Amino acid sequence: MCARWRIPADERREEVVIAMLVRDEVAIRQGGTEVVVSRAQLTELADKLYFLDLAFNADARDVVEALCGQE
Q1: Cα separation of 52 and 60, whole Å?
Q2: Which of 37, 40, 41, 45 is surrounded by the fewest CB atoms within 10 Å?
């Protein structure tokens, strides 16, 4: 494993750990739950997380409608 990032816990959720497992996989872990994402899935996941972040910082209705239209 060559890279690991820790996102600190907040008052409601445990710490998030993002780790590169091998060249083509990334693990996202929080508490006892782990999701392993392939390199092919990573760009789309990052795009969705970006839009969700916007939903918390802007007019959530427009962002949610845009996300739901991409299914």
Answers
A1: 8
A2: 40
Give the mean pLDDT of 14-23: 90
Cβ-contact 30, 18 below 8 angstroms: no
Q: Which pLDDT does position 28 carry in this prediction? A: 94
Global confidence as pTM? 0.71
- List Cα–Cα distances, 43 to 11, 12, 59, 61, in angstroms: 29, 27, 24, 23
Strand partners, 10: none
Cα dist from 26 to 1, 7, 48, 55, 66, whole Å:
10, 15, 16, 24, 26
In whole angstroms, what is the distance from residue 6 CA to residue 60 CA? 27
